[in-house]
Amino acid sequence: MRRIAVLDDDPLYLEMVQQVVQGAGHVCRTHTTGTAFMQEMRRETFDLLIIDWELPDTSGPQVVQWVREQIGKEIPILFITHRSEESDIVAGLGSGADDFMVKPVRMGELSARIHALLRRAYPDGQEDVQEFGPYRFTSSTQSLEFNRQPLELTHREFALAKLLFQNQGRLMSRDHLRDAVWGHSAEVLSRTLDTHISRLRQLMNLRPGQCYTISAIYGYGYRLDARDSPAAPPPPT
Predict the structure, then answer these.
(1) pLDDT band, very low/low/confident/very high, at 237 (cuts 50, 70, 90)
(2) Tens digit of pLDDT for each residue in 98-155?
(3) pLDDT value of residue 38
(4) Backbone torsions φ then ψ of 55, nearest 5 degrees
(5) Cα 48 from Cα 4, distance rounded (Å)
(6) What pLDDT is stored for residue 124 in this prediction?
(7) What CA–CA distance (Å, rounded) separates 212 from 232?
(8) 3-state secondary structure the chain
(9) Sheet holding 221-226, edge to edge
(10) Nearest to 184 by CA among 18, 15, 16, 10
(11) How far is residue 142 from each of residues 9, 128, 129, 133, 155, measured CA to CA in Å?
(12) Could you give the CA distance from residue 89 to residue 92 in angstroms, rounded to a whole number?
């Protein structure tokens, strides 16, 4: 499951895109203005952005440029717009978008484009066995080894640890972590996430001075870093 944010001032298209995203098993957050979209991007993290060109308070390319400057270059962005001239496509992709679709959009093609962008951006998500230094995750058995020794984790602890390792160096909002591990509809107390993070620090030895560490970013979320890796940027202001 991924978190996808959609920006479009057309309620019919917002509803259509939301149906496609949720039908694929992902969480979808919708916005009708660039201002509201950027405000949420300052406090939340997403795996994919879908942005319309024509907006009431700004333009799609301006929003994309802001995302690339403030959030980073890694998150995939899909443009959806009525514009179809070659110069518009060039301008949209040049602003930092990864793909471009012209309205009216076919739902099957939209689903395929979303899947392709997520697959390219997060290529390791489907592998059964993943290794990060001394840690070895096996998804089919929900098992984790540290230096070839098994660690006893609950299902949610395993899912949370794997998510953090797959996104190492990336700041993850609290809601993002809760949605991915407990599900979008689950009622999860904030301290539940904090308790799970604390247990992972202890069970997996994810403390300063070790090969990996979990850092809490006040008012935002958590980030897992490898030792000696470059410092990640702070949350956008």
Answers:
(1) low
(2) 999 999 999 999 999 999 999 999 886 668 999 999 999 999 999 999 999 999 999 9
(3) 96
(4) -130, 155
(5) 5
(6) 66
(7) 14
(8) CCEEEEECCCHHHHHHHHHHHHHCCCEEEEECCHHHHHHHHCCCCCCEEEEECECCCCEHHHHHHHHHHHCCCCCCEEEEECCCCHHHHHHHHHCCCCEEEECCCCHHHHHHHHHHHHHHHCCCCCCCEEEECCEEEECCCCEEEECCEEECCCHHHHHHHHHHHHCCCCCEEHHHHHHHHHCCCCCCCHHHHHHHHHHHHHHHCCCCCCCEEEEEECCCEEEEEECCCCCCCCCCC
(9) 172-173, 221-226, 212-217
(10) 18
(11) 42, 10, 10, 18, 7
(12) 5
Residues in the chain: 237
The predicted-structure confidence for 173-190, as pLDDT tens digits, reads as follows: 999 999 999 987 667 777
Measure the CA–CA gap between 6 and 51, rounded to whole angstroms: 6
This prediction has a pTM of 0.85
Mean of the pLDDT values across residues 228-234? 60
CB 14 within 8 A of CB 8: yes
Q: What's the confidence (pLDDT) of residue 218?
A: 86
Confidence of residue 233 (pLDDT cuts 50, 70, 90): low
Exposed/middle/buried for residue 76 (C-beta within 10 Å: 0-12, 13-18, 19+)? buried
Q: What is the pLDDT of residue 234?
A: 64
